[in-house]
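Exercise: predict the structure of this protein bound to beta-D-fructofuranose.
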Amino acid sequence: MLCQMIAYARGVKKNAWVFLVLSLSMVLFACTGHKQVKQYRIGFSQCTFGDAWRQSMQKEVKRELSFHPEIELIVKDANLSAAKQVDQIQELIDQQVDLLIAIPAEAEPIAPIIEKAYAKGIPVILVDRSTLAKNYTAFIGANNYKIGSDAGAYANALLKGKGNVLEIAGPDKGSSADIGRHTGFSDVVKKYPGIQVSPRFSADLDKYPLEWEKQFTEKLQSLHNMDLIFAQNDRLGFAAYKVCKQLGLDHQIKIIGIDGLPGKDGGIDLVERGILKATILYPTGGKEAIQTAVNILNKKTYQKETELTTTVIDSTNVRIMRLQNEKLLAQQDDIDARQKKIEEQIAITENQANIILTISTTLALALIFGGILYYYLLENKKINKKLALQKEEIAAQRNQLIELMAEVKEANDARLNFFTNISHELRTPLTLIMGPLEDAMSSPKLHFTIKNNLDFIQRNSMRLLRLINQLMDFRKLEEGKMKLQASENNIAGFVSDIAISFKGIAQKKSITYKVISKTQDLQIWFDVNMLDKVLFNLLSNAFKFTAENGVITVTIDKLPNENMVSIKVEDTGIGMDTTHAFELFYQGQSSFRGSGLGLSLSKELIDLHHGTITVNSETNKGTSFEIKLPIGKSHLRPDEIQAEKASLNNIYEDEKIYTTNVEPVELIKETEGVQQKDRSILIIEDNDDLRAFLKKRLGESYEIHEAANGEKGITGAFDIVPDLIISDILLPGQDGLQITETLKQDIRTSHIPIILLTAKGSISEQIAGIKSQADAFIVKPFNLEYLEVTINNLLKNRAVLREHYTSELPTESKSNSANKIDRKFINEFTALVESNLSNEDFAVDDICKKIGISRVQLYRKVKALIGYNVNDYILHVRLQKARFLLAKENLTISEVSYRVGFSSQGYFSTVFKSKFGVTPSEFKEKK
Ligand code: FRU
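Solution:
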């Protein structure tokens, strides 16, 4: 119950953990989930970010994007390298951007990758500069050719059709802006013959300003009477102005630039300051690019080509342009500031939302855990309540048990008292039997039968005495009245003296018996009256359970390491189950070793000595007992030491009691007048005395076969096929019930009556006996006459049954009194004989083969069941059949003789006449 509760609580705990994890994931999801999810990714490939114009473009792009939080911008800077830009666009294609904005570094090399992106389905917007690619989605930018032409026209106006002109450009000569501007300018100034254009100067001012200045100074010095410089952007124009100033040419040379950026040093500022004569406004198109992209992504209409407006800014309009731009810039700054504010607000709101969410989730979790905790508390209370109840129950049960134990003890004491009293009572008559018995046995003129009987009485009287003594010892032990009275004696001598008592038995049973003392004089403290009981008991057991030609060894040894003496008794007997060896009355499944008294008594006695007794055993290999006793007397209390030394003369009172028990039974045989007995009995009994007794008594009327265990009993039954079996129920190995079952199920032995003998008379055992198909069940102690009558009856019944089988033919309808297997056998046997009546070659061997038993078994079985010799029976059936055929059928004598398996009619007539007193023809006539 408790386990169930814990498991349940564990289950709840596990669920709580699952819940906690789920809740936390929800919180995390909520914290991140409400942020703007980017819907589109735009790849932005810029040729360079290295100048003010491009930074202005980027600002514009950023500002416009702030209105579109659903867009993510992936920016790449090619640093004016066309090759690098190709790779970067490829990367953007690989990242599967939703749209590509490209400002190509150069017109030609970038074209294929633009085509590729477009072919992959990525919309492409080209800004500021175009490529040679035919396929793109949209273009946004000013007309650079027009800008070049405007600059040319403005130069001509400034020079009034005459003068020297130098064009200066950046490093990106391959860009469409450069090409457009150069071509536009050249085409216009070409028209004015008074204007001389020097080869243009191009170098990277943005990356290498010092180098640029040096080169340009040299260039300018090399040219004479220069009147105008056309700079492809305002930055180049401003740098050229600085060089002119250094060379004192600033008043002479007029400069025109492009871009017209607002702010300090921007084109507008430079025009206002008179540094540039004019600049042509070149819008970046960043804002338009994003607007177009948004339209494309949202599948709205858009313009494929967006041409941004340009205008010439010079002294005439520069002020208004500046003012306009300042206003625009102020507005843009305002937008930026607001945008920033909005972003901050969004961040704050997001933060607050997160905080609120976290707080509410924490609250929810707290509530849930509070709930779980509360639930636990309730569950705990319930469990505690149940536990308290169980505790009470257990306490009540314990009290009950204590009471019961007290009752049991009382009952036990009463029983033991009863046994002790009875034992006492028994000892007196037993002594009175044994005394005269010994007198009677000492008479030299005893008849062998009487001698045998007296021997038998003496052995069993001794056995009874031994049991009574042990029972009384136990009682003393239980009551604590058995006190150790140790005296110092030579243990080796003591053990050897006891061991010698069994020498004679060893000789009679052909047992190799050795007593080995590894030290001769070994004085230790022990109670002689107790230790002799133990040793006699161990030795008598060893001799009892060791078969002829076995080995028994007694070894006495000193164990200096343990300060102990060891006494070992080893045998090569049948072995025993050692698990409960020393338990009182424990006899294992088959009581084949010990009475259940001797060993437990021995253990108690050795315990009193503060020693140990152990056992080792292997079935059918042998058993070894070892006693260990402490050396010295420091382990003994003063009251455990005997005041006076024990007299060793009286100590062996147990000798006779124990040795008689194991003396082999020697029956004096009657040699003359032995009759041949025609019925046999197999006795299966492990108790030698009882077997011998039965053999002697039943041997007068029956041929007796013996078996001391189940296995031998079964093989004996198959070999001998006796007329009757007497078997004990409790046997080593297969017991009586198993034997009965085996034999009754085997066709060779199923007909043999079996009598089971047992000491235990319980109803359940009797039922088991009957179930096993035993024919009779006799409880020990039994009356011999009763046994003899039972044997007689069973054999008589067999005879009656036999009559039954043989009185008439056919046999199928015979009574149910025989067992199934026997009926089956008779049916089979008679059917076999009947069906072969006309077969004159039909022989006993044919029947054996068909039924599957040996010749001897067939003869014995048929004899037992039908009372006939097999051949006589066949002849009997043939003649009965012949008689039937002669009476009922209209057949000739020769036909009849042929039908019943006689080849010669003459022989048939002779046999018929000898059986029925008339010849076949006389018989036929009469009928
Ligand atoms: C900057 C720049 C601008 C010019 C534009 C043409 O990189 O040189 O000054 O107007 O590129 O694409």
